[in-house]
Each structure stands twice: as C-alpha cells, then as structure tokens.
C-alpha cells in the first residue's frame, strides 16, 4: 500500500513535469505536426507518390530533432519506411513504436468545411486529413519521446517504424519486417492508431477486426445499349450487381458466403456479459448518426456487431450514367468495392478466396463477373495479462483518473496481426482518437485535449513498462 | 394490274431522279449535316444551353436554304422550337415533319474512338453523337424536301417542327403544341427517329414504348463513417439500395411494383404469332452483344420483351468511394437513376406515382429514401390501315425492294403520344437507323447507305400519301 502510494505520488510528479513541458512547447508541437499534415500523402492515389517520399523525409527530420540517435528513410518495394532508434542500454527492454504517415483519400471534397491539407485549430480541435489517423496520433509518440530524452527520463530503448501504406493494406511492410527482423527486435510494439470510448471514458483496444477487400466488375453486353431498344431483353449489369450484393446477406443480416463464419471465435456468455458493461447509449449513438434505427446481424448488440462479429459492406458502387439530368442507357458494366471486417481466428486469405469463388460462381450466365482481391489482414487480440497491457492501463488511469476499459474495435490494422506472425511481437493499441473524429471521412478532426493527453500518457507507459 | 405497273414504272423514274440528285449533292449534304453535328446540343447539361440556341438557328438557316417559305426559331418555356413551312395549295394535304436537334450526353468519353462532335466518315458510316439520333435522320427529311421543291415534285404542303428537348422528355413541346394548334394543323406527322430491322430488312415502327424515369437517393447516417468502427451496426445505404433495387423484380423477371401491369394491353395469340414472323436470329443477336445468354421476363420472347412488355432498368448508380485503389468507408448516401419502359395503355403519370409511393413505402426505417420523378411519356400505337402508313410501306418497298415489316420498338418518343392527344394527329415512324448505330452510347454512327436511302424514300412517301 505504501509502495503503491509512493508510486502514485512519483507518477503524479512525473506527469506534472510532462504537462509543464507540453504547456511550454505546444505551439511548436502543433506547427511541427502541421508540416506533416500539409503533405497530402494519400497512399491510394498514384499522383501522390512524390508526397509519400516527402512525408517520410519530413518524419526523418522530426525523429532526429526529437532525439533519435539514428533516423533514416528506408526503401521497401512500395512507399518507404521511416526508421528511427535510440538505444540507452542494450540490456534494457525495447519499445517499438509503430505508426503510419499515409492518409486516406479526401473525396467527396464538397463536404469538407476546411481545406483537408491545410490544418486549422477551431473549437479545440485540429481539422485536417490525418489530424487523428495517424499523423496526429503517431506524432504524440514522437513528442513524448522528445520529453523523455530531453528530461533524462527515457527508461528503455526505443525504435520507431512509420510506414506509408497502412491505408492500402501495408503491402510492402510485411516484406520489410521479414528482411529486417534483427533491426526490429523489441519487447513490445506500441501503437497509437485507435480510439477510446469517450473523452471521459478511457479504453484500450484489446482486439481489432481483420479486413478483406475486393473490387468486382459485372459485364453485360459488350457496349452500352439503348435502354429502350434492348431494355427487358438483355441483362442490365447494374440490376444484376444489385441482386448479387443483396443476396450476400440473408433476412437476419447474416452473411451468406458459404463457410464465412466457420472459423469465427464464439465468445462465452460470460465474456459477452463483461463486454456489455462498457457504457453505451443507443439513443445518443443514433442521434449522433442521424438515424431512426440501427441495422445489423440478428442476435447481437451494437457493440458486439462491431466488436466480435464480422460484417460486409459495399464501400463504393458505380455504373451507367451518373451525371446531371437523365440519360436512358442500358450500361455494359457495373462496379463495386466490397469489404468485410473479420474477427479473431478468421483467415483473411481463406475468406478472400471464399468470396471470390462464391461471387464468381453465383454469377448468372447472362453476365460476366470478375472479382479482384485487393488487400486484407487478420484480426488481432491482445491478452489483458501482458505486462505491457497493464502498463498502458496504469498510464491511462493516471492521466484520465479512471481505469480504461478493454474494448474490441471494429476497425482493422491488418499489419498488427502480421507483426505477431513475422516479428513474434504483441502490440499495445493505446489510441486516443474519438468516434467523432471522422477519420476516413470529410472533416477529420482531433481534439487538442486528446492530443495532449496522449503525450502525457505515453511516458507513463514507458515508466510502468520498464519498471 | 396495268395501273399498278404504270405506278411502279413512274415511281422507278422518280426514284432515279432523286438518286441522281443525291449523287450530285452528297458532299454538300454531308457538310451541311456536319455543321449541325458540330454543335454539342446536349439538352440535359446546363452548360450547353447556348448550344441549343445555336443549333436551332443553324436549322432555321438550313430549312430556308432547302426551300421553306417561312422558317423561324420560336421560343418555348425551355429550348426553342424550329418551325418551317411551305404551302403549295391550302386545299392539299399537309405533312408535319417532326424531329429533334438535341442529343444525348457523351459520357463515358474514354470509350469514344473519335471526337463525338467532330464527325468523320469511315467504313461507310458517319461517326458522331447525333449522326443518327436525330440530326442525321431529321436532316434526311430536309434534303428530301429540298429535292421535291427544286425539282417541282412537292405534291402537298409541308411543315417542320424540330424541338430541342426530346432526350429530356420534350417538356416544353407539350405547351408549345397546345399554344400553336392552328399553326401545326396537318393531316399526318412524319418522323424519322427510329430504326429498321436490318439494312436488307426494312421495317416501320408501328408502336413505341412509353417511359418513366426517377432519381432515387438513399441516406443512412448523416455523414460518411469508418467502415470498421461502424460496419455491421449501422445500415449501409449502398447495400440497402441494392436490396431495394433487387426486390423490384421477382425471380421470373416480373416487376413487383403493385399495380404496375394493371393497364398493360394483352395481345391476342394471333397478334403474337404475327409478330413472331419478323426475322430474328437469337444467336446473332447474342453474338453481336457479346453475351452468353439473354435475360428477361419469363413467358415472352426477346422481341416481345422489348416490343409489347414493359421493363425496368437502372440507368446509373453511384455511392461511396469510386476512385482508384481502396478506401474503407461506410457512406452516408447512395443514388440511382431508374427508368421503366411502358407499353400501350399504361399511364406514365400513374406509373410515376405508383413507383414513388412504393419505393418510399418499402424503405426500411434505418434509411431515408427520396424519389424524384424526372420525365415520362405514354406509349404509342399506329394502326396499319392508315393511308399514311400504307404510303410509307409502298415508299420503302420501292427503295429496299421488300415490303417493310411493322414492328413494335422498345424505345420511346413520349411526345408522339402527346401529339395524338393535343393535336389529334397520328404519326408515321419511318426511321432508317440500325440497331448497330449505338445511339445514346459511345461511337454513335449512321451508315451513309441508310442516310441516302432515307432521302430516296421520303419523296416517295409524299407521292403515295398525296395521291
């Protein structure tokens, strides 16, 4: 008890010093972050290829400035990886910080209230693409590191690995990890790329969904036809695609791909009861989203639907005439981008094959269907007994005054399962985003309070972890 | 018999004179037509508003040059109407020629092999938007008129009415006809805006389908969401729209809108047997379209599916991320442009209300659905006993050496039913297009042979009609 009290009092002092440092340096922190945000590093768009390199270079400079002994931009088969490290004592444990400097596309531009790559601070939030995901969050790691180095409080070795392909599936990072196992040796991976429940309800993501993504193309006639002369006699690929997509769910919201649920880990009633304790206000949730009703798989709560159950969504669809006014056409082709979120134990490569085979096999003979697998990744679960998990719990408790709840996130960071497989390392997903940050959407934002709380929490994590 | 032989021999002489005139003037004919085609008179796109006026003015000049006593551009509530006339004797019958100078949009541009508004002649065809529909076809009327005037062979009075809104539903022409009933007094309307079966199988369109067109918008959450954090718990408007569209047809290809078929005229077995005599090579049809199988309403042949049965097609669909690569998003909105083709006796305004009510009423409570009716028009049937119909039959027989087959076209010219209602006039749909002309699609084209055969046939029609 005495020991605990002393620890708490030490931690409080430590936190006070961090807070003072943040207060003195916060304008500089933001200005440095903004230099990253201003680089439109959209990994899915070819035209931004040079921006990926610029953003990596800028990160290298910032890591060096923050106190890394070594920082470099390392080539991969795709976008480069920024690697940095500071070794204080080879005998001490090593934290490998992972983040990504690439961002999502910004379309539809018309819905942005500010320019996506010109960050502004308004209403206590940073507004920009990447403000949260993941420039803002990974930058907290750099500034927490800076404080530990400058104040002489760094208790262990640190490595940084920042990639440029997270939003497109981390394709090149798997190979990079395979090649650089020795360089990346560490005891734990620390990631700030997730959300917590609410500003006053801290949580740690103990599980992530996996992901599988395809583009499908349905072709009817070999060219666009007059919808009057041919309508009714020739298959319309849009109508056919709609039917095929509709048939991917049954009336209860279950996904109909044969074998899709075979490997899904079924949680015990006890585990489900524990999860159900997390606060959730369905009315507020619906109001925030502006919907009258929710929709999901029968037999599961909303939190379960995003946390422990897989789902299938069409992320995009297009075909025929989509311009102003009317055009009567029976198009030749229709397209959709379809993704599933997977849960623990589902093999994304198996799911990818299952979907492709199924979708192509159910194509009626009056159309041709082509499925192109895009990226994918496995789900991930972190055991709550890990020392690093407990360190994260303690750190957040100090800053937020409340024990964080372990949550299963509906989102995916496929490479996290990859790290476990290739590097043999577990990851701690200590993220400070909020559900209202609109990541991947127009008007992405990140509350300054969360940004600063993150910088406060991270050194405490190091302290508890290295104890 | 003797009388018939003499008539035939006279007609042959008459035809030879027309052919000689075409031979002497064909380069000029094409150059004049190209001046019309080069004006991008796309009625559905606001930016082309000035082009509509330019195109109408050009038509006025061409009618005057062809021999009209009076030619003017007359205002309507929308795009102007070009009116022209030549009266040779008020006691003689009057033919009212109807055509349209507006064209369809050109998207997707990437599929055009030549510039859509820079006509080229290649492989015996004119390639351009409007080459057939309806600049090329209506221009045949002007040049046939020119020959009759210049050679002293005009046997009756002629009026021209060329509108600029056919491709968007002829909205302003209904009011124009109401206001100008006296001006438009005639005995028959002659229209070249349809197709014949094949270059060696002449046909006359004895029926047209009606049309009804809507844009639908499905809204889920009030903004785009992260598909991982919300996927599975919140309705995806694309998935919902797909299901709603899929449900518009049952397994037999019947349309499920309640009451949709109530007013459909059911043809007798005898009529169906007659229709079935028209040559139709299903293998060639499929090969031409590049499809392995056809798809349509159960219990009807391909020709019946486009001729005597209504159909429903999605002309365009869009929503979510449709750019390069992948983006995981749960979009807020999804859209579709949906059209039905109607048959004789179906009331397009009733159908429009039925669809809107039905589609909005079946919307699940987790989305909001908005249906915006666009344009529509009734179906039309021409009796084969009409003197004008027989005149068209005789004229085509002279030129093509074969009796034309009466066909029911799947396409729509809604205003044709409007003419009957407002002006009390039947229309003869003597068109020279071919199914391969790709009207409304990229690479629209019109064979020169059909263009010249049209100019040959029209004066023969006047001759037989005025007899």
Q: Architecture of the largest domain in chain A, CATH level 2?
A: 3-Layer(aba) Sandwich
Query: Order of strands in the sheet with the most strands of chain A?
Result: 1-2-6-3-7-17
Oligomer: homodimer
Which percent range describes the beta-strand content of chain A?
15-25%
Measured between the Cα atoms of the first and last residue of chain A, the distance is 17 Å
What's the level 1 CATH class of the largest domain in chain A?
Alpha Beta
Let me know the average pLDDT of chain A. Answer: 94
**Can you tell me the residue ranges of chain A where pLDDT is under 50 for at least 5 consecutive residues?**
none
Tell me what the structure shows.
2 copies of one chain form a homodimer. Chain A has 2 domains: 2-208 and 379-466, 3-Layer(aba) Sandwich (Aminopeptidase); 211-265 and 308-376, Alpha-Beta Plaits. Helix content of chain A is 36%, strand content 21%. The first copy, chain A, is built from 12 helices and 18 strands. In chain A, a hairpin with a 6-residue loop joins strand 1 (70-74) and strand 2. In chain A, 53% of the residues are buried. Chains A and B meet through strand 9, strand 10, helix 5, helix 8 and strand 11 of A and strand 9, strand 10, helix 5, helix 6 and helix 9 of B. Strand 11 of chain A pairs antiparallel with strand 11 of chain B, so a sheet runs across the interface.
Short description:
Chain A has about 475 residues and is α+β, with helices and mostly antiparallel strands. Helices cover about 35% and strands about 20% of the residues of chain A.
């Amino acid at each position: 008890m005495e020991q605990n009290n002393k620890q708490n009092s030490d931690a409080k002092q430590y936190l006070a010093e961090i807070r003072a440092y943040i207060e003195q340096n916060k304008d500089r922190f933001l200005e440095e972050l903004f230099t990253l945000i201003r680089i439109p590093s959209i990994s899915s768009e070819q035209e931004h290829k040079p921006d990926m390199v610029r953003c990596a270079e800028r990160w290298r400079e910032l890591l060096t400035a923050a106190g890394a002994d070594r920082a470099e931009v390392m080539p991969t088969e795709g976008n480069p990886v920024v690697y940095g490290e500071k070794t204080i004592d080879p005998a001490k444990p090593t934290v490998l910080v992972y983040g990504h400097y690439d961002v999502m596309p910004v379309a539809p531009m018309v819905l942005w209230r500010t320019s996506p790559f010109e960050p502004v601070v308004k209403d206590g939030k940073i507004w920009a693409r990447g403000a949260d995901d993941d420039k803002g969050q990974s930058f907290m790691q750099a500034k927490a590191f800076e404080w530990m180095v400058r104040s002489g409080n760094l208790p262990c070795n640190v490595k940084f690995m920042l990639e440029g392909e997270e939003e497109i599936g981390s394709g090149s990072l798997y190979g990079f990890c395979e090649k650089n196992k020795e360089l990346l040796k560490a005891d734990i991976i620390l990631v700030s790329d997730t959300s917590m429940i609410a500003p006053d309800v801290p949580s740690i993501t103990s599980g992530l969904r996996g992901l599988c993504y395809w583009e499908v193309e349905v072709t009817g006639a070999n060219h666009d036809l007059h919808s009057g002369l041919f309508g009714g006699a020739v298959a319309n690929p849009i109508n056919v695609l709609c039917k095929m997509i509709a048939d991917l769910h049954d009336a209860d919201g279950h996904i109909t791909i044969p074998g899709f649920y075979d490997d899904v880990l079924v949680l015990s009633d006890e585990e489900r009861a524990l999860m159900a304790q997390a606060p959730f206000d369905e009315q507020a949730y619906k109001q925030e989203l502006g919907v009258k009703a929710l929709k999901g798989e029968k037999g599961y709560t909303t939190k379960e639907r995003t946390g422990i159950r897989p789902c299938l969504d069409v992320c995009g669809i297009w075909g025929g005439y989509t311009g102003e006014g009317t055009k009567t056409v029976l198009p030749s082709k229709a397209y959709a981008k379809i993704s599933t979120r997977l849960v623990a134990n589902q093999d994304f490569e198996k799911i990818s094959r299952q979907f492709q085979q199924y979708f192509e096999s159910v194509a009626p003979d009056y159309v041709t269907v082509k499925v192109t697998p895009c990226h994918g990744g496995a789900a991930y679960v972190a055991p709550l007994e890990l020392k690093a998990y407990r360190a994260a719990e303690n750190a957040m408790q100090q800053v937020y005054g409340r024990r964080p709840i372990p949550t299963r996130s509906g989102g995916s960071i496929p490479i996290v399962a990859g790290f476990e497989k290739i590097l043999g390392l577990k990851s701690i997903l200590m993220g400070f985003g909020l559900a209202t940050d609109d990541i991947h959407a127009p008007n992405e934002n990140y509350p300054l309070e969360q940004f600063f709380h993150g910088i406060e929490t991270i050194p405490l994590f190091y302290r508890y972890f290295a104890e």
